[in-house]
Design a protein that fits this description.
alpha+beta, 11-stranded antiparallel β-sheet, 2 helices, 11 strands, about 15% helix, globular
């Protein structure tokens, strides 16, 4: 059942990608800041984000990895059921072997609030060997795609349309402080990062959407 999005909600968005036995989940948060009429719903927001981000994520990953879809879930003030969208699910577009699966592109997130609780990072999963230069850093083409992803993550989005819609914006959410801050920038790193839990060493993961 669709849930209307209202001022005061904290919305969690989970993007799912897989490669081999590993599942990468990239988590971002949003807050509504403008509501018209009865507002848009979490189902409509999932459809909006699915139409936008399926291409963005496939541009970032190897052809042996797959974008599986996303889930949108209101987590505060009351946790609601997640709404899943698999629009555009499919393999990555970068046709070369996978880099070690713990390798990841990185985005640094800044807000106007002080303290590490209100900063964040995005670890972009499953890059291909062809996206890494002989110097062991991301290629120029990868950095362009990473900058495009950063722009997409920073953009405001609209759930619904016309007389019933809700505008949402990206935030950094602190579970410890139960508070959030508006994201002001997503800054691409020119170096690879490491997400050890995505290594093929150890047990595999189960996809939950």
């Amino acid at each position: 059942m669709a849930t209307p999005l209202t001022i005061g909600d904290t919305i969690e968005v989970r993007f799912y990608m897989t490669s081999g036995t590993q599942v990468a989940i990239v988590v971002r948060h949003y807050e509504p800041y403008s509501v018209i009429g009865n507002g848009g719903t979490d189902t409509e927001l999932a459809a909006t984000l699915g139409a936008t981000f399926s291409t963005s994520w496939k541009n970032m990953i190897a052809s042996v990895a797959k974008y599986e879809g996303l889930a949108v879930q209101v987590i505060k003030p009351l946790r609601q059921l997640a709404q899943v969208d698999k629009t555009g699910a499919g393999l990555g577009v970068n046709a070369s072997d996978l880099l070690p699966p713990q390798t990841a592109g990185r985005l640094k997130i800044l807000t106007d609030r002080a303290g590490k609780s209100f900063r964040g990072r995005v670890y972009v999963p499953f890059p291909a060997e062809g996206q890494s230069s002989p110097a062991g850093v991301p290629t120029g083409a990868y950095m362009t795609d990473l900058a495009n992803l950063a722009s997409s993550l920073l953009a405001t989005r609209t759930a619904g349309a016309g007389a019933n819609s809700t505008d949402v914006r990206p935030v950094v959410y602190s579970r410890k402080l139960q508070s959030r801050a508006i994201a002001r920038s997503f800054i691409p790193s020119p170096f690879w990062g490491t997400m050890r839990r995505r290594s093929f060493i150890g047990s595999g993961d189960l996809l939950s959407i």
